[in-house]
Amino acid sequence: GTSGAGGALSAAGGRSAGKTGGALAVASGEGAATSGGRVAVRSANGGTGGTSGRLSFSSGSSTTGNSGELRLGSGAATAGRGGGVVVGVGGGTSGAGGALSAAGGRSAGKTGGALAVASGEGAATSGGRVAVRSANGGTGGTSGRLSFSSGSSTTGNSGELRLGSGAATAGRGGGVVVGVGGGTSGAGG
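Now predict its structure.
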């Protein structure tokens, strides 16, 4: 529209009062000899006085049972390498870059949801590496801070913070190295 909002497009499975609701599937075509087709889900660019559209991926709520899972992953490969999964946040030229947050769910009466980050197993060689680091600082700032801490507790013990390497049955256990950066014009950390 030139003076109003553009038209919306909605696709939904059917509702059922007594059984499972209808499914909604979006899939690209199979390439029997080459690559399968690409599926692109994106919002449009924003104009000079607005932002780009928001993308929301979430399962519905539930009043008497579990809510649905949200799964994001690549497929397995039998004679090649599994596809990567990339989650990135856009930068800004006049403002701060976008934040990326991952958190387990809150529970009012039970244990809160867990958050696990793990690399892949190498059955014949090494397991994958896990890297947690902040970005380098610019000419007028510092590099980002890294914080590892457990939450506080008002009526019991707070959580432990453990840092260690795994055990080895036929080799040497991995070392744990904690180092501090040096400085060229000031004192080392």
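The chain has a mean pLDDT of 88.
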